[in-house]
Every structure is written in structure tokens, then in C-alpha cells.
Design a protein that fits this description.
Growth Hormone, Chain: A; elongated; 8 helices; mainly alpha
Length: about 230
């Protein structure tokens, strides 16, 4: 479930990254704004990183994932609907996108680590390498699908590549959709999956306690066998 949710989320995240330069140049009318879009999004990512420990302590990783995902959805809608005549509004939503995406991305790895413990509890075998490899593979898939989804969207709108080309209104609308609505839609799918994710903080604490008890019991058995007790 975490892999599929991550796949959806990464698809949305890469989609907006793919068309960011087009959004600045063709929608906002100034290619140089792409630098500021990237900067404010990065600032948002670093800002939220400071609060991740507190978010986890207060509401837990799953709820934090859902909450920050909602922030990313709002940001995506804002990017798609922001008026081109007021770039500062778009920049604000890119900052907000950095908060949402940065927070979820951070929590993804914490949740992934939890699944290793869950796997050991469920099967008795600790498969960290396989778990991380599978998770990383789905993230790579998301990167590929996100680029494809963005390119397909602007292609449907009639985007024409080339220096100095003036894009049609439909092409500009497609760019706005690829930068905002497409990412928001994929993140909605990611959150729907995560909503049903069963590994809550309470369940995880119980899992860790039981796994620890099992390890202690095995160590005691080994000690007894070595000492002949």
C-alpha cells in the first residue's frame, strides 16, 4: 500500500517539476520566474522539515502524511488557478507545494522503515534490502510516469515546442493543468490509499514490542542451549 501510494504521489510531484519552466515562460510570461518558483518551493521543503519531528509526535506519521498531502493538493489547485497577471500568487502556492511535497516525502521514508518491522512481525524474517529495493523501484516508476503524464497533458492542449513560439490559450490551459490539477489528482489517489493504510502509530508500537519480545526469547533460547541449561 505504501509503494502504490508513493507511486501516485511521485507521479504527481514529477509532473509539476516537468512543466515548471513552461509554466514560468508560457503562463506567467517570464522564464526567469522559474528560478524563483524553484527557490520558494525549496524553502518550503526546508521549512517543513524543521517541524516533521513535532508533527510525528503530535499526530503520527500516517496523519501527518494525510495532512501534508492535503496541503499539496490545495497548492496544486492554486497553481492551476493562479492569475497569470499576479505571479506572486503562483509563487505562494509553489511555496505551499514545497511544504506539502517536502513533508510527505520525508514521512514516506519513515513509514517505509516501519514496514520492515511489520514484515518481520508478520513473517519472522527481516527483509530490509528487499523492502527498500521495492520501495525505490516504485519511486523510479513514479518519476517516469510523472514526466509522461505532464508531457501527455500539454500535448493534448496543443503545445508546440520551439523558441519564440506563442502558445495558444488551450496550450496554456494544458500547462496550468499539468502543473496543478494533474499533480493534485495523483496526490488525491495517494491519500485515498493512505487513508486505508493499517499501520498506525498504535499498531506499530504493538508490532515493535512483540518483535522485541520475540528477539529476547530467541536470545534466551540460544543462551540456554550454549550453557546447557
Amino acid at each position: 500500500m505504501l509503494c502504490v501510494s508513493s507511486l501516485m504521489f511521485l507521479t504527481g510531484m514529477i509532473a509539476v517539476g516537468t512543466v515548471g519552466a513552461f509554466y514560468a515562460r508560457d503562463v506567467l510570461g517570464d522564464a526567469n520566474l522559474f528560478i524563483y518558483m524553484t527557490l520558494v518551493q525549496t524553502v518550503g521543503t526546508f521549512v517543513v522539515a524543521l517541524f516533521i519531528p513535532r508533527i510525528v509526535r503530535t499526530i503520527g506519521k500516517k496523519s501527518g502524511y494525510l495532512s501534508l498531502g492535503v496541503v499539496a493538493i490545495v497548492a496544486g489547485a492554486g497553481i492551476a488557478l493562479a492569475p497569470a497577471s499576479t505571479p506572486v500568487i503562483a509563487l505562494f502556492f509553489f511555496f505551499l507545494l514545497g511544504v506539502g511535497i517536502g513533508g510527505v516525502n520525508t514521512l514516506m521514508w519513515a513509514l517505509e522503515a516501519d514496514t520492515v518491522e511489520y514484515g518481520e512481525w508478520k513473517t519472522g524474517v527481516r527483509t530490509e534490502g528487499t523492502t527498500y529495493a521495492l520501495f525505490s523501484f516504485t519511486r523510479k516508476m513514479g518519476q517516469a510516469l510523472g514526466g509522461a503524464a505532464a508531457a501527455f497533458t500539454i500535448g493534448l492542449g496543443g503545445y508546440v515546442a520551439g523558441k519564440g513560439v506563442v502558445q495558444t490559450d488551450s496550450a496554456k490551459m494544458a500547462i496550468k493543468a499539468a502543473a496543478g490539477f494533474v499533480p493534485a489528482g495523483f496526490i488525491v489517489l495517494a491519500l485515498v490509499i493512505m487513508f486505508f493504510y493499517p499501520l498506525t502509530e498504535k499498531v506499530f508500537r504493538d508490532v515493535v514490542a512483540e518483535v522485541t519480545a520475540r528477539r529476547a526469547a530467541r536470545m534466551a533460547d540460544v543462551h540456554d542451549s550454549e550453557t546447557g541449561a
